[in-house]
Fold this sequence. Notes:
Four copies of one chain form a homotetramer. By secondary structure, chain A is α/β, with parallel strands linked by helices. Chain A has two domains: 2-149 and 318-329, Rossmann fold; 153-311, Dihydrodipicolinate Reductase, domain 2, CATH 3.30.360. Chain A contains twelve helices and 13 strands. The first copy, chain A, has helices spanning 11-21, 41-44, 59-66, 81-91, 109-116, 123-126, 134-142, 152-166, 195-198, 212-224, 257-268, 319-329, and strands at residues 2-6, 27-32, 71-74, 96-99, 129-131, 146-148, 170-180, 203-204, 229-236, 243-251, 274-276, 292-299, 304-311. Chain A has a seven-stranded mixed sheet with strand order 8-9-7-10-13-12-11, with helices on one face.
Amino acid sequence: MKIGIYGATGYSGMQLVSLLKRHPHAEIVFLSSNRFAGKKFSQLYTKFSGMIDDVLLDEESTYPLLTKVDLVFLALPHGVSMRYVKKIKNIDKDIKIIDLSGDFRLQDSDIYEHWYGFDHLIKNSIKDFAYGLPEINRDAIKNAQYVANPGCFPTSMILPLYPLVNEDIIEGKIIVDSKTGVSGAGRKESQNFLFSEVQDSTYAYKTGSHRHSPEVVETIKDFTGKQINFLFSPHIVPATRGIYSTIYVNLKNGITLEDIQKTYNDYYKDEHFIELVDYIPSTKDVNRSNKNFIHFEYDNLTETLIIYSTIDNLMKGASSQAIQNMNIMYGLEETMGIDFDLFYI
Amino acid sequence: MKIGIYGATGYSGMQLVSLLKRHPHAEIVFLSSNRFAGKKFSQLYTKFSGMIDDVLLDEESTYPLLTKVDLVFLALPHGVSMRYVKKIKNIDKDIKIIDLSGDFRLQDSDIYEHWYGFDHLIKNSIKDFAYGLPEINRDAIKNAQYVANPGCFPTSMILPLYPLVNEDIIEGKIIVDSKTGVSGAGRKESQNFLFSEVQDSTYAYKTGSHRHSPEVVETIKDFTGKQINFLFSPHIVPATRGIYSTIYVNLKNGITLEDIQKTYNDYYKDEHFIELVDYIPSTKDVNRSNKNFIHFEYDNLTETLIIYSTIDNLMKGASSQAIQNMNIMYGLEETMGIDFDLFYI
Amino acid sequence: MKIGIYGATGYSGMQLVSLLKRHPHAEIVFLSSNRFAGKKFSQLYTKFSGMIDDVLLDEESTYPLLTKVDLVFLALPHGVSMRYVKKIKNIDKDIKIIDLSGDFRLQDSDIYEHWYGFDHLIKNSIKDFAYGLPEINRDAIKNAQYVANPGCFPTSMILPLYPLVNEDIIEGKIIVDSKTGVSGAGRKESQNFLFSEVQDSTYAYKTGSHRHSPEVVETIKDFTGKQINFLFSPHIVPATRGIYSTIYVNLKNGITLEDIQKTYNDYYKDEHFIELVDYIPSTKDVNRSNKNFIHFEYDNLTETLIIYSTIDNLMKGASSQAIQNMNIMYGLEETMGIDFDLFYI
Amino acid sequence: MKIGIYGATGYSGMQLVSLLKRHPHAEIVFLSSNRFAGKKFSQLYTKFSGMIDDVLLDEESTYPLLTKVDLVFLALPHGVSMRYVKKIKNIDKDIKIIDLSGDFRLQDSDIYEHWYGFDHLIKNSIKDFAYGLPEINRDAIKNAQYVANPGCFPTSMILPLYPLVNEDIIEGKIIVDSKTGVSGAGRKESQNFLFSEVQDSTYAYKTGSHRHSPEVVETIKDFTGKQINFLFSPHIVPATRGIYSTIYVNLKNGITLEDIQKTYNDYYKDEHFIELVDYIPSTKDVNRSNKNFIHFEYDNLTETLIIYSTIDNLMKGASSQAIQNMNIMYGLEETMGIDFDLFYI
């Protein structure tokens, strides 16, 4: 299918472009970036010299092309994305959209406006977006015209939590202590993410106030009907890639570890991109792949179930998951163009 | 005072040597290493060429020197240290000892033997060791002949937890999710800690089963009389230095954040090496210093108090804390030779 | 074709395995490792769980399988490889071999023995090995039963130097100052390559005495008939991947930069894996790809031509180049299974 | 003495402040930063909370304080510094100045204007600045009111080159291939120096056109009367600290390695901050110290002398060298406040 990509020059956009360029069924029609319009993509990412030399278009220049593409990806900032969606829908009502921002992940626009601080420009459209987490929402994605691609942290948390909440086998407070590399902060100029600042630096930020917190709570409520008592505590570690979520929960009375294992097997044993492993995983297990590795252990002393979940923030946490959604929307092999785990180091 | 150092060639030993070399009142009489006996210290750490060219002695060669030193530091592996202590005490009953291993941190030798897997060789001596965490045990250290220097993780956890447990203002399960750089694993040959393996790698290990877990529980019991319900969950992050402990606790009914703040102020406001900061700290705040930075926030939704505590694992978590103890034992200015925060990057 | 891989568990071996697993025409029959025989490949590299779970065979166990494979790759240490080659040839005289060690790169066994310090076990076989640098030796590789895959540094140096020497347009001393990440040192236990040692560490080693020096000199002599006056000066930098060679040469009288550009164009314009770029490249341009980026500048003041050449040491410098050779040997599309540049970061 | 520091918030300024704060004879009267005026220094570098809480003053606010300070340090950008110098001299003609920029390093203002692209505002003052490289210009510094602190790269090159040029024992082209960590680029917002961009990235830049090139040539001419034929080729490596210069030179006919060794001994054997080592050094040998480690080897094949020289770019390459100069100007022990090598890792 023919594809346009907005926000092609951030890290997620770049990763999306480089993957789609090799996808057997995707044909890139345009790459768009207002900031770098007129430059070649390969001038911004010289690695792609001779391979992705497309000239970047500004927003306006893409309008005439919209009717020639089947699908657009939006790798734009929160708040900006919805403005593009509004415009694009007006120009071509049949076009498919996969949005990588947070603008259409929360079904309740009040919650969106509270956490994101923007007025939502097209509240009525939110319900038309399927939440793009294939392992729990594949059927809806299959039939969706619009998909809201999940946040990176939420992907790492919802996948391990959803089966346990849905089966009603955990209770009480859920604490998630997540660690992320800095590529999630993007490629924009910044002091905080300079190499000299990040090296040997580990710290928490936005404990309890990160926008990915309501995404987890609301999504789990949407899919299970249950309200969780949830604390999300993200941290920065001196890495480029990788999200590692350590999840602390309590089992309901009578629930055994066999029940947990069985639940995970029932939900995920056949999922190509989820590995239920019998050791504590590392972000290195998933770097540069579309995989999610999950493991759990039980601490007898404190009666706590600890779940370890890791993904690559730019892949399963953003770009390759977006392609997984595209594959599903078009009835392609779900793994097409994203099924490699080539690089351990 | 005259000093001997055993285990001088590991990272903790090396850090201790380099600090003591500049300490106004310390005079190094010998450096010992069985593995590298006969080599100069500066052959192992070429940085110190022309500055610390002492030849390393094997264990036996140090015996005749023991009566000429006032104090020995032991930066030896767990299980090895107690053997040295036994021997050294026999040779010189007046010598002072600061032990950086875990061999004398647990007053109950059964607990030691359970968690460390060794028979304790000199059970009767354990009680003669003061737990060397000055901010909670200064008086005992002052009068001690023997000091058990705390573990790196425990230092980062006991300092923030002790006041709250002692004042009886928290309750229920305590979860600590700690992140550490890899220098704590030492300088020995290893595959797991190769640069190529560590870069972009984050992972949990020994959840609930790390030896530093009983050290926290037992020490807090010794100092407060209270048994805590405690889960310790350590992680490796791709850094050389720094420990970051994120602590999740519940407040007792009626306890306010003002109570927490007041408690910390009461205990630590005048402590030179503890900073109670009004922002979420980073390991970068304490790298290469003897400081502990502490901050707390409250999550209303889940009614959870989150405490952030960070130290440098080789400094406050090992070597500079050992010197702080030495200073106290000898009635010196407590900050002598360890009071610098010279390097932000 | 059916394939066996010896030395599958080092970094080069692992990279080779992960690439071949996705190669459309390759079928892995066995993976061999004496050290880890009996373990699954995915136990050593957990990332490949569920994907490459082959059990590693020891040397002996592979013998019966040799007649069932078309081609073996040897990713073994220097000196070990020739012993395997001898044995394998005896068992199956028709089998194809691609050797990634240095044992068959130097046509003159005296030079080999001088620089490697081993007696060569099968001197008569050396001449049967084609030097596996496709861009300068494609025809020989096409018809070869045995290929000696080039060293990582030599690949980065011979590609830019060969055209200039062959056209006889440079003269005098050639100085190459190379910088490499540490993955080239492999995955074996080591103190020098611990994360804490490598971080913030840059240093030269083996200036003028590295085994890759004669490989460059002899290969260039074999292919051009000319003896170069050559100084190779390698350095370690705190990176996992990437080789960067900065080459300082003098132009012959009357030679212009246009001549240089024309020469490179003539030799390499149509080479898929060589990019002649108009800016100073970075190792980031080639990380995790089979590419070699080349650029040159001229310093008028000192009349020096400076050439910048960069490759990924594990890819074009080892494993993907080995597959490029395989593709050529089997008449496949040369880019098959190795033509991706997916990851900028 | 009483001190003011301009440009206190860049990395060099910060390093200077943290060192001076501990200097036994220095008293900081003011810290200045136009950009961050009104903030506390410890808000920008939280590590120094409770230790360096001085409020940053804008330029104007410092004027009334100038008559109360003995010495000002300028850690300002090139081109900005000379404007400050002009103003400061007007306000207080007796004040001492140590300038860390490039504005007063080149005695010939034409050369300055050519390489820096600015008109020089106070050409007549240039001659009043002593070049602040103590090991070759100590006497002039001792009597100087104004000192131009050397560039980081030039320090690493002039120290090893000066004795050989001065003794007239090398000839022909001098090639210096330098590698630097990224802290030299400062703390300003930037895309190029983001962690994700720097990790696993090595590249050359400004070959033959870096401003530090004329600084080396002119300084060596000033001090030896000789014009060198010099190519400076800097590279970025993924490190925070450290400069490593690999220097390729030719010996004059009849000169032996003993002559080289003797020359270095004659010039530097008694220099506290220069170590002539008998192995190839690493940046790790000098990180966070004021040292310069020098070693040389000879390549018989190409008759090339290779000299390895390494410094910490923020210390001997900037801030601690500035303090060394201050110590000399005030007749203090030259090592005062800068003589530590505390941190190997």
